[in-house]
Amino acid sequence: MIDDQLPDRVRVREVGPRDGFQNEPERIATADKIRLIEQLAGAGYKRLEVASFVRPDVIPQLDDAIDVLHGLDVPGDVELTVLVPNERGLQTALEHRETFHDVVIFLSASETHNRKNVNRPVDDSLATLERMAPVIKDAGLRCSAVIATAFGCPYEGHVDPARVVELAGRLAAAGCDELGFGDTTGMANPRQVRAFFTRALEALPGVELTAHFHNTRGQGLANCLAALEAGITSFESSFGELGGCPVPPGATGNVASEDLISMFHEMGVDTGVDLDALLAAAREVQSVLGRRLTSHVLVAGPIAWGERAGV
Amino acid sequence: MIDDQLPDRVRVREVGPRDGFQNEPERIATADKIRLIEQLAGAGYKRLEVASFVRPDVIPQLDDAIDVLHGLDVPGDVELTVLVPNERGLQTALEHRETFHDVVIFLSASETHNRKNVNRPVDDSLATLERMAPVIKDAGLRCSAVIATAFGCPYEGHVDPARVVELAGRLAAAGCDELGFGDTTGMANPRQVRAFFTRALEALPGVELTAHFHNTRGQGLANCLAALEAGITSFESSFGELGGCPVPPGATGNVASEDLISMFHEMGVDTGVDLDALLAAAREVQSVLGRRLTSHVLVAGPIAWGERAGV
């Protein structure tokens, strides 16, 4: 069956503890966050996005970032990522630099989305990120940058892939180790994804490119597949299908980690994550949130047969 | 963007009026069935599976097959398919042969699944289908055969692709015009799908091969993508994500037509189906059933921006 050319192994960053918890209407207790993050690390994740240094009056759900970071006890080979929205957030984060390994900074490829999100033109955001990346690197930390609306904008529609690659090149030149491309409102399709990442991999050698898809129109896993086939080996997803600012209410946001991990494993592509242990973490967050989550593998169970399948 | 080799156009058969309606706990009124089928034809479908000649005591939801078929008024270029489970059902169907165009017969690739489904060994079912296919052809009708559990069995696990291709070859030799491959319980993965259809297309020239995927573990569209990339141009799906015998309860069954059509169109692959008209039909069946359906594009709306997206 291995007549194609897929990698044996990919890296998956779990973003639920930041992106997911941020989107919950109720703030999750700090002790619950710590327990869930440690459970995810125990499931085998080596990359976890766990906190954000944003203004607590804007995102109260993450106002305990410092307590979470100082409270965590995870294996030494687990890379913890924090998100910072601006230079002020970065300064606060750097006061706790011993508690994490990687800082993610972000902008939108689309002018209108960037203005609505951070009230600035894209070029202003880019200039700020170009100042922040060296500061992060000088602090001995890894630096990631995410380009949101990389595959389409809910306000403008088409986003020029040449512009996305140009922004990525500027960020790489500023010192970023990793560049993430976010399909923020689920507008990407697999043909577009394959073409984009083929181009981006050629244009951006020496920097890690990460795919971050949403399942808004059900194409999340198909887009991950297209990215994998184009040569991408770094992905992000969210356990329990949490987060991703789903619009409209009730829609799906981030690709569910358990669905993505299941697909990769069934394809013979290892992730290092134990699916059963991940499902246990997803059931645990379901219990903490007090509502039923609807990722496919959580509902249907992993692919199995005979006694395990209960048939 | 068109540097890959995808077809400009594919055929999609809508199976909701048979597979979907059969799986509803309450029998849908005949007039509602007819109205919904005509609405789907109006949306541009040229292939609709609309009825089944099964025992009414076994599947009362479809006991009005004859009334539905005689009541339908669809354009002359719309191909209507009926499912028959056995020779007795075929005889009844042929009494109404002027009301449809295509008969679908079926077996399972897996021995245990076939025995549990129709209480016979696979070879017995195959012999029956080999008798039925010429009868269907002699009646001037098109003949399709579906091989269920073609990508995995919930009882046995792995299904040998060589056995599936062998069964398909026997059915093609018996006169079948089309061979469908069903991922009955959602066990397929894209790598397997690509390898299988590459092999099947080589082994079975001159017969139409159709992909029928379930979204049980969320991989439905990714598997359709893999089939498309392997060269498959015929697909089946169900509007409103109806049907497909989802196991366990609450799980997803058939791939949702609106999600599949949306993906193909975004990729520049035409289906002949008007997505907005299809969504109207999905909303109509939602109203008939009195419950909310959860296909992604029905919930989130089609990919759009600006005024249309309401942002």
UniProtKB/TrEMBL annotation, chains A, B:
Gene3D superfamilies per the UniProt record, alphabetical: Aldolase class I
Single annotated GO MF: lyase activity
Record keyword Iron present: no
Keyword Lyase listed: yes
One matching Pfam family: HMGL-like
Residue span(s) of domain Pyruvate carboxyltransferase: 10-279
Keywords associated with the record: Lyase, Metal-binding
NCBIfam families in UniProt: PRK05692.1
Family: Belongs to the HMG-CoA lyase family.
Protein name as catalogued: Hydroxymethylglutaryl-CoA lyase
